[in-house]
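Journal club prep — side note

Before the paper discussion, L.F. wants everyone to see what a predicted structure for a comparable chain looks like in token form. Sequence:
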Amino acid sequence: MERSTRVLLTVVIMALGAAGLLALTVYPFQYGLGESLILVGALVGALLFQTVLDDTSF
């Protein structure tokens, strides 16, 4: 995967994470900021790992 494609996907994932954080902190979910950060952080971390680090070999 090209570097520009990775950067674009990373930006899209981060934007979705920000939208998810906003969605989790407002009604009807009523999660607190801490719970929202944990949920969104785990989701964004998993998506970034699969998108950005998927081509690397360990």
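L.F.'s comment for the group: The chain has a mean pLDDT of 79. Keep this in mind when we get to the figures.
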